[in-house]
Amino acid sequence: MDPITERQLYLTIGSRFENIELVQMAVDEILREQGAAEEIRHWIGLALREAVANAIKHGNRQDPERPVEVELEAVADRVEIRVADRGEGFDPEAVPDPLAPENRFRSDGRGIFYMRKFMDDVHYSFRPDGGTIVTMRRRLAESDGDEAAG
Amino acid sequence: MKIDKRERDGVTILDVEGKITIGKGDIALREAVHKALDEGARKLVIRLADVSTIDSSGVGELVSAFTTVTNRGGKLKLLNLPPKVNDILQITQLITVFEVYDNENEALASF
Prior knowledge:
The structure holds 2 protein chains of 2 kinds. By secondary structure, chain A is of the alpha+beta class.
């Protein structure tokens, strides 16, 4: 079956960690319908989980009344996912390098690093009225020489 | 997410099954490690063969478990990493932090 050429998804969830499962299930189903292999869906799913977890934890401070909005656009073999929170924003460049020896044994601070590893492109923008939007893109087709984690 | 605890040759083995992810699995792992330590365990193995997904919080919890066990005079080793969990630890160069075994008997003999 040829993949559907274009799919879109808009989801709004309350800031609860258990809602991450719902978002991942919905996104995974669309990626599956687009013909993405299990391996690629796994890594995109992990990047999505990290983005939504950051929005819930750091952006919305786990206030269930503050929404996290997830938008997905899949066109042909490419997907773009945007995750927006209502937080105060942050400086992505100021996030410590998890590979630095002094950070090796930290229990946190690896989420954005993983997102950048699993996706082709990760970009942050900030709404003037408050809130962070992370935009992540990735090709859905495997190419020769792809690492396991992309 | 499920964690079963068993003992073999004086070693406490935590068999973890499911997702070690934020909000649930990471907390369950932390509680299981602390409980084992409180019960006197100092030789610990976390068996990850049946872990389907681990996120950065789960990875952080493994690192915390390692430092907590070490700080209390114990040793923590990992057993049967699924390929995707192995990849996750490789990417953040944590694979060199942990002692990792593919064979349970070898893991037990290493203490």
